[in-house]
Amino acid sequence: MFRFPSICAGMAAVCLLLATPSLYAQSVAFTFDDGPTLSETPRLSPQARNSAMLAALAKHKVEAALFVTCGNGADRPEGLALARAWGQAGHAVANHTMTHPDLNNAKTGLAQYQQEVRDCDRIVAPLPGYQKWFRYTYLREGNTPEKRDGMKAFLREHGYRNAYVTLDTSDWRLNDKLAEVLAKNPQADVEPIRQAYLSHIRQRALAYRALSQRLQGRDIAQVLLLHHNLINALWLDDVIRQFRDMGWTIVSPGEAFADPVYALDPQRNAPGQSLLISMGRSLGMTTQDIGLRLMDDGDFEIEALKQQGL
Asked: How far apart are CA 35 and CA 73, in angstroms?
């Protein structure tokens, strides 16, 4: 496994990869966190949201992955049926804890977090499409060396893959804005939010592609993080079409994880960020080097929407 114990050693690893011929054209895998959720939203029921997302994936023949937070609904029969539908449709189903605690929170202990993984696994492991993949909540791997090392050892011992993300998005922030607008007026014109969302995805995709080229000297197989929410129930079809119009190839998460970049283990993990940002931090890159637009939570798009009166 590649590591970045120091900036010099990290640069050596990057130089080695720079000398390697490009193995991957630009590709992206779709993954969704926190589902299925049984919470109510404007316009669509939980069942309708789930069906809409699956329909968009089926329309474009996209094989995705759902990282289940069991306490959001899969711990109840009606929610478990929604998660099962993903596996039955040919998608991967994997573990995202029971209740989505933050391992960087001082109140979240290592043993508690590990139990959350075990408890979720008891629910999702029998489902069709189950993969022994684990994604850290908030993409945070722990606020102490004991937590970070303890979870890495736990994942190795139990045979889990760390389901890294490289193309991180703030779809959740724009989803919150969408829900806020529709709660005030269910008939509101939300086209500006759709446009802002697609623009946000495009900006993040191009920025992370550029960052991968700087760090690896090639296009990597990107793993996209979205969420099981209303905004994707409404506009996932548009997101997929936009990637295809950009010339990107959509691959399965399993194919993406075969890219050698996912064997890297950055020494300086950037909490709540893309694997690529962690790699950049390991090499001593600053926030300015990486780019402020990759470090915010959709602030640019939210401010633009406010200027439009939303």
From this structure: 8
pLDDT tens-place string over residues 277-291? 999 999 999 988 998
- Give helix 191-216 / helix 7-18 axis angle, nearest 10°: 90
Task: Name the pLDDT band for 293 (thresholds 50, 70, 90).
Answer: confident
Tokens of 30: 């779709």
> What global pTM score does this model have?
0.92
Q: Rounded to an integer, what distance in angstroms lies between the CA atom of residue 22 and that of residue 212?
A: 12
Please check whether residue 243 is in contact with residue 237, taking contact to mean a CB–CB distance below 8 angstroms.
no
Q: How far apart are CA 304 and CA 168, in angstroms?
A: 20
Residue 24: band (very low, low, confident or very high) from pLDDT cuts 50, 70, 90: low
Q: Structure tokens of 128?
A: 């069709």
What number of other Cβ atoms are within 10 A of residue 242's Cβ? Answer: 17
d(CA 300, CA 16): 36
CA distances from 153 to 144, 150, 168, 263, 309 (A): 14, 5, 25, 15, 49
C-alpha radius of gyration, the chain, whole number:
19
**Nearest to 136, CA basis, from 102, 182, 170, 85:** 102
Q: Is 130 helix (H, G, I), strand (E, B) or coil?
A: strand
